[in-house]
Amino acid sequence: MSDARPTSGSEMIMQWRKWDGSTHWRHECVYLGSDAWGDWIGQPVGWLSARPGREFVAGSPNVTLIPAGRDDYALTVNRDHPHDMRIYIDLGWEVRWSDDPLLATGIDMDLDVVRVEGERGTWVDDRDEWAEHSAAYGYPADVMRHLEALALDLEAAVRAQHPPFDDATADVWLDRLAELRLDRPA
To answer: How would you classify residue 43: left for phi > 0, otherwise alpha for psi between -120 and 50, otherwise beta?
Structure first.
C-alpha cells in the first residue's frame, strides 16, 4: 500500500476482486483530489466498468470516495442516474491504494447501502448474495460481524445525510469532474 497519489486529472483504475481473489468490477476513473473525508475519484459519462461476463459505460457522471483511515467501504455518488440512484456504498475489505498510484483496489464483500430519490429511499442491499458468498467463500466471523454492523451504521448515516453522505460534499467533486471534460481512455 502506498501513500502516493496521482495528480488531479490523472486516468486510473479502481479494481475490485472477490474474497477468493477472483476478478470483479474494474472501473476506468480519474483521480480528482482529496479532502478531510479521503480521496475522490470520478467516472465521466462514457467510461467503462467491466467484470467477467458483464460491462457497461457510465450513463451519468459519478464520484467515489475512498475514505481516509478506513478500508471497509467505498462511497459512490451519482449525478442524474437513470434510475435515480444517488448513493451506492460498496462494503468491502482492504479498500485502498496499491503500490501503483494509478490503481486503487478492494475486496467486494457483497453488502451495499443504496439511496434512491423517491419513495423507496435507503436500504441495505444484496443480503442474499452476502449469505450465499459468506458460505461459499468462508468469510471469517469477525469480518462478518464488523460488516453487518457497518452496513446498519452506514444506512443510518445515509438516511440522516451526515457528511460525507450528504449531497453538498459529493457535489463539489461532481462539479470538479464536470470541469475536466475528459475523453474516454484509449
So the answer is: beta
Which residues contact residue 26 at a Cβ distance below 8 angstroms, ignoring those fewer than 6 apart? Answer: 13, 14, 15, 16, 49, 50, 51
- Can you tell me which residue has the cell 468462508? 138
Do you find a cis peptide bond into 164, omega within 30 degrees of 0?
yes
Radius of gyration of the chain from Cα atoms? Answer: 16
Domains in the chain: ranges and CATH? 11-178 (2.40.380.10)
What whole-number percentage of the chain has pLDDT above 90?
Answer: 89
How large is the average pLDDT for residues 92-121? 95
DSSP reduced 3-state for 168: helix
**End-to-end alpha-carbon separation of the chain, Å?**
27
Q: Where are the beta strands (DSSP E) in the chain?
A: 11-17, 23-35, 38-43, 48-51, 54-57, 62-67, 73-78, 85-97, 103-116, 122-125
User: In this predicted model, what pLDDT tens digit does every residue of 36-92 receive, in sequence order?
Assistant: 999 999 999 999 999 999 999 999 999 999 999 999 999 999 998 777 999 999 999
Give which of 49, 36, 37 is closest to 78, Cα–Cα.
49
- Model pLDDT, residue 186: 65
